[in-house]
Each structure stands twice: as C-alpha cells, then as structure tokens.
Amino acid sequence: MCEFKLRVRENDELKNIANGIVLGTLEEDKMVFRGLGVEEKIEGALITELNVIAEESAYIEIIKSPIISEFLKFFSQYLKYKQGKMENSDIIDIWKKTSESIMNHIK
Are residues 55 and 9 in the same domain? Predict the structure, then answer.
C-alpha cells in the first residue's frame, strides 16, 4: 500500500503536516485526510499535486485559502440545489453573498 506525506501551502509557505495518509475526501467545505492513526481536517483546501513517482517519497500537496473555503461552502449548497432541496432564488442569493465575501478577500 502507498502512504502519502501531506503538505499544505498557505501564504507561500509549504508545511509538512502528516505522514501515512491513505485516503482523502471532501466533506462539506473541508478536505479530510485519513491514514495510519492520523486524521487531518483542513478547511478551504484543494489538492494541487499528487505525486507517486517514488513510493517511499509519495506526497499530496494542497493549497489552503479563505477564497477556496468560501467557494466550497457555496458548492455544498449548490449540490443541495441540484438535488431539488433548494429554490432557484435561494441559490442565487447564496451565490451573491459568496461572491461578495470572495471579493472582500481579494481587496
């Protein structure tokens, strides 16, 4: 079995945060990485690189940002909308609030 090192890039800084990762999933607005006695929940993150060229040095690199967090929160609501659990006007209102929040992070 191939286990991964988990690296997080935030504010142009790369940190190793876990070893032995074997599973990564998206749960609401968090990436959840699990492995040999370890669980890391990281809000507002996306995988930018997965490298298994050499099994002994395999790694997953993620980037973390409040903008990603805002988008993932919207995306979880969008999935509810697509399932018919939300009205069109509700998802439009959520998108407007999300885009405003994202723009605040850019300024």
Answer: yes
Q: Is the pTM of this model over 0.85?
A: no
3-state helix, strand, coil in the chain (%, to 5): 35, 45, 20
Q: Same domain for 30 and 51?
A: yes
Gap between the Cα atoms of 66 and 50, Å rounded: 22
pLDDT bucket at 54, cuts 50 / 70 / 90:
confident
Q: Which domain holds residue 84?
A: 67-106
Burial 3-18 (b: 16+ CB within 10 A, else e): bbbbbbbeeeeeeeeb
Per the CB < 8 A criterion, the answer to whether 31 and 11 are in contact is no
Over residues 6-49, the pLDDT tens digits come to 999 998 899 999 999 999 998 888 999 999 899 999 999 999 99
Same domain, 75 and 101: yes
What phi-psi label fits residue 44: left (phi over 0), alpha (psi between -120 and 50 degrees) or beta? left
